Amino acid sequence: MNDNFGKLYIVATPIGNLGDFTFRALETLKSVDFVLCEDTRVTQKLLNHYSIETKTISYHQHSDDKKVLEIKKLLEEGKNLALVSDAGTPGISDPGNRLIFEILSSNEQISVVPIPGVSAVVTALSISGFPTDKFVFLGFPPQKKGRQAFFSNLKDLEYTTAFYESNHRILKAIISMQEFLNPETKICLCRELTKKFETIYRGTVGGLGDMQVKDKGEFVIVISK
């Protein structure tokens, strides 16, 4: 790696409970020249909480090639950057992986450094009680085109499966799972992990209607095989 280039740090942030922030992550955000944010308003609240004065730059799923070139130029000028998402580990079902790919594709001498921490999908898997020596993570289901096929294909997967869903579509997702999956399929539905109103629903797909799932918050669904 070229010591004249800056480093791109991939920094995991809390998914709810600020106590889950690591010391290394804090020190990294304090020491870099800029923090690349999915939403600068969300990240600024985190930085303010820890009295971190590092300047922020917006980078999200709608950022264009011009923004990527801007980030690349900063790294080649020797600036150290930290990439964060709104919550959790960047690059996991968010646009961070595209930025990393673009940076490394154009300049393999730039160091990309992981600063590990919380990930919602791993957190949910860890408490599911289901086999996790092998698992499948599917990100978010499609909102429209391909959504029915997404849920239909769940029945054919061979391993424990996890995916995210928004509060706007969780009740529809439950209906779809009941339509396509065996009623006896075991499920662990996690809402608002690490937050004040964290709720873990455990049972079967057939019993989802009795769980009275609240359509508020962020969800991780884990299905056993």
Element pattern in H and E:
EHEHEHEHEHEHEHEEE
First-residue to last-residue Cα separation: 43 Å
Work out the radius of gyration.
19 Å
Question: Which term fits the overall shape?
Answer: elongated
Largest sheet: 5 strands, parallel
In percent, how helical is the residue content?
25-40%
Q: Report the CATH superfamily of the largest domain.
A: Tetrapyrrole methylase, N-terminal domain
Q: On the 0-100 scale, what is the average pLDDT?
A: 94
Number of helices: 7
| Category from helices, strands and their pairing | alpha/beta
Strand order of the largest sheet: 3-2-4-1-5
User: What would CATH call the class of the largest domain?
Assistant: Alpha Beta
Number of domains: 2
Kindly identify the CATH topology of the largest domain. Cobalt-precorrin-4 Transmethylase, domain 1
CATH architecture assignment of the largest domain? 3-Layer(aba) Sandwich
Task: Give the strand tally.
Answer: 10
Point out poorly predicted stretches.
none
Strand content: 15-25%
Topology, please?
Layout: E1 7-11, H1 23-31, E2 34-37, H2 40-49, E3 55-58, H3 65-76, E4 81-84, H4 96-106, E5 111-115, H5 120-128, E6 135-137, H6 147-153, E7 160-165, H7 170-180, E8 186-191, E9 199-204, E10 219-223
Parallel strand pairs: 1-4, 1-5, 2-3, 2-4, 6-7
Antiparallel strand pairs: 7-10, 8-9, 8-10
Organism: Candidatus Magasanikbacteria bacterium CG1_02_32_51
Domain Tetrapyrrole methylase: 7-207
Protein name: Ribosomal RNA small subunit methyltransferase I
Describe the structure.
This protein is α/β, with parallel strands linked by helices and 225 residues long. The protein folds into two domains: 7-115, Tetrapyrrole methylase, N-terminal domain (Cobalt-precorrin-4 Transmethylase, domain 1), CATH 3.40.1010; 120-223, Tetrapyrrole methylase, C-terminal domain (Methyltransferase, Cobalt-precorrin-4 Transmethylase, Domain 2, 2-Layer Sandwich), CATH 3.30.950. The protein has helices at 23-31, 40-49, 65-76, 96-106, 120-128, 147-153, 170-180, and strands spanning 7-11, 34-37, 55-58, 81-84, 111-115, 135-137, 160-165, 186-191, 199-204, 219-223. The strands form two sheets. Strands 3-2-4-1-5 form a five-stranded parallel sheet, sandwiched between helices. Strand 2, helix 2 (40-49) and strand 3 form a beta-alpha-beta unit. The longest helix has 12 residues, at 65-76. The termini are far apart. The relative contact order is 0.16. The model has no long low-confidence stretch (mean pLDDT 94).
